[in-house]
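#structure-requests
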Amino acid sequence: MITVRVTDHGVAAVLARASRIAANPEPVLRAMGTTLKSITEGTFNSAGASYRPIPWPAKRDGTPSNLQASTTLAKSFFLRLMGRTATVGSPTKYAAIHQFGGTIRPKDAKALRLQSGGRWWTVQKVTIPARPFLPIVGTSGQLTEAASRLISRAGERMLARLLERGA
C-alpha cells in the first residue's frame, strides 16, 4: 500500500471551493431544476416534442394533440427548492391524468357531462390516453436521454461558474 499526501496550494484551494459548493447545492439545483421546468413547458409545442418520452396520440379528428385548449397546464409549472431537492410540479388537478393516462368515472353523479366540439355528451367514464409532458420515462423517474443531457450540462455549467468565482 502507498499513501501520498498532496500539499499543492492550488489544488487545495479548488478542493476547499468544491467543499463549500457541496455544502450549498442550491445554485446547481436551481440551474438543473430551471432547465427541467423549461423542457417541460416546451413539450407543449412542436419544437419541444422531441423531449417527450413518447409521441402524443392525435385527437379524435386526427389533428396533432397539443393539450393547449386554455394553456393553463402549459403555464402552470413551478420550481421549488428545499434543502438538497429541486421539485418541478403543477398544481392543476388534471396534470397527472395527462401525464400517465387513465379512466375518469363520476364520483357522486351517475354519469359525467362533458362538452366536446360544441356538443354536450353524457358518459359513464372517459379514458384519457397518456400524453406525458414531463421528460420522464413511465413512472421510473428516468429522464429521457435528451433531457438528461441538457439538465446535466446546466448543472456542470453552474459548477464551473461557482468554481471560477471562488464560491
